[in-house]
Amino acid sequence: MDLVVRNASLPDGRTGIDIAVQDGRIAALGPALVVQGAREIDAGGDLASAPFVDAHFHMDSTLSYGMPRVNASGTLLEGIALWGELKPQLVQDALVERAMQYCDWAVARGLLAIRTHVDVCDERLLAVEALLDVKRRVAPYINLQLVAFPQDGLLRSPGAFDNLKRAIGMGVDVVGGIPHFERTMAQGAESVRLLCEFAAEQGLRVDMHCDETDDPLSRHIETLAYETWRLGMQGRVAGSHLTSMHSMDNYYVSKLLPLMRESGVAAIANPLINITLQGRHDTYPKRRGMTRVPELLAAGIDVAFGHDCVMDPWYGLGSGDMLEVAHMGLHVAQMTGQEGMRACFEAVTSTPARILGLEGYGLAPGCHADFVLLDAATPVEAIRLRAARRLVVRRGKVVAEAPSMRAALHLPGRPASVDFRIGR
Ligand code: FE2
């Protein structure tokens, strides 16, 4: 075998598991494998997980914080306006460089698949060209999936639909949208229909920014679910954000959830950004704004978490750590029971992998040998500690390593160091 990892714990609760890797795939997985590896690593009971997956990101704007100025109000709308100021000043090389730097961070965090929206409301399609270039460059170590995103509105922004079609023709993978940003509810619904029909025609997946507002009457998710069902696109469509669901009437939601379930539409929440941008028009009490994660899960709907923004016009923090995203998600959704916390780990690993349609994802024989060894024993401990990535493996090769988290203590009568872990 090229590589054998001994004595790992898995997210499903199995312990004492060996993982044997050959030719970039997992050849065998189980207790006490009788195989020899060219390289053998002792996991020491630590958690091996399939890699982190970010279901929702904006790589064209990442690491541009402060360019040309910071978002003074902290609102979504000022962020969009600010991005509009920055867009004409974008230079392809600089954009590629920022995206490549972010991808370095992602790999170090064990984040090996990212769905990024790319703004197509720019005649030059400069960001599209840049991110297609980045996609090619990082392909050996990151699955980068691009969504054609009409940031300024499909119908509201002249030429947006043509640009979106051009972007798809250039190799962008997924059809995006932003119905709540169109001028009227009717135009929002019309944009959803047009985009879903186009995606169905082209055999593409759909992922729309949908109802990213505190307005309880923003109901474009209803249209998105209906169009998905009408066009037979079950399992290929996601609604991102869906923050208006936080504020919707409960009776209406009781009718909406079964429609979403029957349509096979997935939900993507962005906890760090939703808790930051929503509720900005409220005085007190202030709404949290994140969509109804536990209720969606209970209804049998896939829910993934995305990072959305890192150091850009909307958000001045972040470092590509999907455990930080899961940590915020479980707090905002009050999913602090053991089952809820484990679901939040799945929301940054296996669930987005399903939404992106990743081939060969998972920890099982035959899957790609892509995994991350965490400085934690369980998914819950990994979230609690935002655990260090001891080892990140892509196609059987170690692509990143980090030391375990440990602090030296200088206290009389107390241990020489602490590692923040319990029971070992
Ligand atoms: Fe977004």
Which fold name corresponds to the CATH topology of the largest domain?
A: TIM Barrel
What is the strand arrangement across the widest sheet? Answer: 6-7-8-9-10-11-12-13
* Fraction of helical residues: 25-40%
The CATH C-level class name of the largest domain? Alpha Beta
The strand count comes to 18
| Helical/strand content category | alpha/beta
Strand content: 15-25%
Summarize the biggest pleated sheet.
8 strands, parallel
Cα-to-Cα separation, first versus last residue: 30 Å
Number of domains: 2
The distinct ligands, each listed once, are: fe (ii) ion
Low-confidence stretches: none
Q: Please give the radius of gyration in angstroms.
A: 22 Å
Q: What is the average of the pLDDT values?
A: 97
- Within CATH, the superfamily of the largest domain carries the name Metal-dependent hydrolases
Number of helices: 14
Can you name the CATH architecture of the largest domain? Alpha-Beta Barrel
Q: Outline, from the CA principal axes?
A: globular
